[in-house]
């Protein structure tokens, strides 16, 4: 009986382990590169937002004989939706609704969603009258035309009537009830 000892070649095993380590190292460096590129990209987009906003606000596009801002943006092959999303974000940053760091951290799409969701609306509510508009139908076309043309006056009259002339209001309610009953 003859026993033969196989020669162990550990070099393949060591090479495989070092190959895996190299792959992991390469993968980690690529991930870091990707993060850096994304940060550069978002900073470039923020800068683009600011540039577009300044050009639009100051109407600099007219210096190159563009009639509208949209004509200007087409020349640079920017999608209309993208341009107006950028302008919306730039306005939100300027108004203090969102911060640049929020935009960098969450990205453009999440920032736009934030502007549309309840928190974004709650911030903007201060500019909007919380009282819902009153809707009613008038029987006379002339009175409709008059009140439609003078909506603020109509609002003032109704508000004053309610606050200061409740006796008149009660009289009108009685007259209305009498008309309704007959």
From TrEMBL:
Plasmid partition protein putative C-terminal domain sequence ranges: 129-178
UniProt KW keywords: Plasmid
UniProt cross-references to InterPro entries, sorted A to Z: Plasmid_parti, Plasmid_parti_C, Plasmid_parti_N
Residue intervals of the Plasmid partition protein putative N-terminal domain: 19-120
Keyword Membrane: no
Protein name: Chromosome replication/partitioning protein
Source organism per UniProt: Borrelia miyamotoi
Species lineage: Bacteria, Pseudomonadati, Spirochaetota, Spirochaetia, Spirochaetales
């Amino acid at each position: 009986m003859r026993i033969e000892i196989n020669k162990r070649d550990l070099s393949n095993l060591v090479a495989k382990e070092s190959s895996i380590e190299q792959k992991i190292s390469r993968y980690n460096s690529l991930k870091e590169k990707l993060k850096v590129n994304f940060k550069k990209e978002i900073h470039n987009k923020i800068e683009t937002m600011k540039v577009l906003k300044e050009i639009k606000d100051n109407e600099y596009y007219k210096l190159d004989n563009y009639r509208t801002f949209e004509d200007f943006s087409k020349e640079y092959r920017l999608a209309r939706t993208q341009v107006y999303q950028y302008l919306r974000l730039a306005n939100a940053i300027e108004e203090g609704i969102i911060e640049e760091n929020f935009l960098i951290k969450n990205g453009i799409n999440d920032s736009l969603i934030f502007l549309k969701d309840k928190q974004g609306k709650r911030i903007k509510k201060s500019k909007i009258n919380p009282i819902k508009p009153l809707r009613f139908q008038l029987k006379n076309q002339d009175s409709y035309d008059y009140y439609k043309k003078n909506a603020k006056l109509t609002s003032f009259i109704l508000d004053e009537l309610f606050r200061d002339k409740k006796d008149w209001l009660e009289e009108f309610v009685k007259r209305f009830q009498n008309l309704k009953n007959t």
